[in-house]
Amino acid sequence: MQYMPTPAFQLVCFTYSAGIVFTDGIVYDLIRIFFYLLTGSAKKLRSVRDIIYVFVCLAATFLFLLAVCDGQLFMYVFLAEGLGMYVYFYSLSSFVFSPAKTAINAVRRLFMKFKKKIFIIKTQNSVFAKKILKFL
Hints:
Blueprint: H1 7-39, H2 46-67, H3 75-135
Helix pairs in contact: 1-2, 1-3
């Protein structure tokens, strides 16, 4: 066991931790899209979504520190996570969620059109069925 890690080891830990948080950001956007599908709003259940995200990030960081950094805590790992989080949320996150939101809204509108047509057909059939039953 080394007490002073080599610069190569520090760079590997730094790069991997930034990549882990970048991946966590993608998971956060997937969770965000899932909750948007469920609720129809990006703001509903935000605290539940954030709690799930925090536990995913904590688990990923813990397993990363165990596997790559031999269970040692290094400040540059946490700095890299902060940097990766900043880069992801201010660059790629808006490009992931906005098109997904647009696609989800388009699919919802399409289903609503079909739902209205099915309701009209069902209503017309029920009126027709009532006329037949009334005649009998």
